[in-house]
Design goal:
By secondary structure, the chain is α+β, with helices and mostly antiparallel strands. The protein has helices at residues 28-34, 38-41, 43-52, 54-66, 72-87, 95-105, 137-151, 157-172, 253-259; strands at 110-113, 119-125, 128-133, 184-187, 190-194, 202-205, 209-213, 246-248.
Length: 265
């Protein structure tokens, strides 16, 4: 008569053989085929695998690329910093802790892409929405500001590159897609004009009327290119009415003239 196996330790806790252990990375390849963000959700497990079994990690990495995962560089930047974070003492002032602070700032933004696969981010500044290209100086300055508000110091260039690369990947593989306009947006039977003021108000132009909106509709996003000679991200928009907020006209010609592109002098 065979002896039964006892799978308990002296303290009463169950033990498991290698065959019984459930790998947290099981199903990652199949999951990535339908959800390109799956490797980012498994980043901690991937970092552990990369550190403890580099050969197995390289095989898994090759399989991810084989099923079309294109954000491997951004993923490996995250893994690198997760490994550093684990190795260093918590609270250190190295690049890894800077990345943790900057990554926290991404929790308060909205990442998406346009039809041409450009990565964009919506941020909230003083109660209004602003839209930036992820790979642009405006978003980099936003991250610097968020980091400074928390640490009273400036982040390193490498930490910024890592987090911006991560944000770009999240935007590129997001299911959300929106069009982003410059100055004028034609949406359905309406035309929207960016006033160019500090609070990002817009003019909504309909067939027989117009209105100034403090908050643009969700399907209207304007970005403001940086000035060519070192200015800010704003531009000198058309003059808005000082006291009127609504108007009616068969043809809002004054607004149309304001929306027309200006000739360079």
């Amino acid at each position: 008569m065979s002896e039964e196996r006892d799978d308990t330790m002296p303290n009463g806790e169950a033990t498991f053989t290698e065959e019984e252990f459930i790998n947290p990375l099981d199903g990652l390849i199949q999951g990535t085929e339908t959800d390109p963000t799956a490797p980012f959700e498994a980043a901690e497990a991937l970092a552990e695998l990369k550190q403890t079994d580099p050969i197995a990690y390289q095989k898994l990495r090759a399989r991810l690329i084989g099923v079309g995962f294109r954000a491997i560089t951004a993923l490996e930047d995250i893994l690198k910093n997760l490994i550093r974070e684990k190795q260093h003492e918590q609270g250190g002032a190295g690049e890894d802790s800077q990345v943790v602070v900057l990554m926290a700032a991404l929790n308060g933004v909205y990442l998406y892409h346009s039809a041409d696969d450009t990565a964009y981010v919506d941020v909230t500044i003083d109660g209004h929405r602003e839209t930036y290209p992820v790979k642009g100086g405006q978003f980099k300055n936003y991250l610097r500001r968020q980091y400074f508000l928390i640490t009273k110091s400036a982040p390193g260039a490498e930490a910024l590159r890592t987090v911006i690369g991560t944000a770009e990947a999240q935007a590129a593989y997001s299911r959300d897609q929106h069009e982003v306009y410059i100055r004028v947006a034609n949406v359905g039977d309406r035309v929207f004009l960016d006033l160019g003021d500090a609070t990002h108000r817009v003019i909504e132009i309909r067939e027989n009327s117009w209105d100034i909106l403090d908050v643009p509709p969700n399907d209207v996003r304007f970005r403001r290119p940086r000035r060519a000679h070192g200015g800010t991200g704003s531009w000198a928009g058309p003059p808005g009415p000082a006291s009127c907020r609504r108007g009616r006209s068969r043809t809002p010609s004054a607004v149309n003239r304001a929306a027309a592109p200006r000739q360079a002098s």
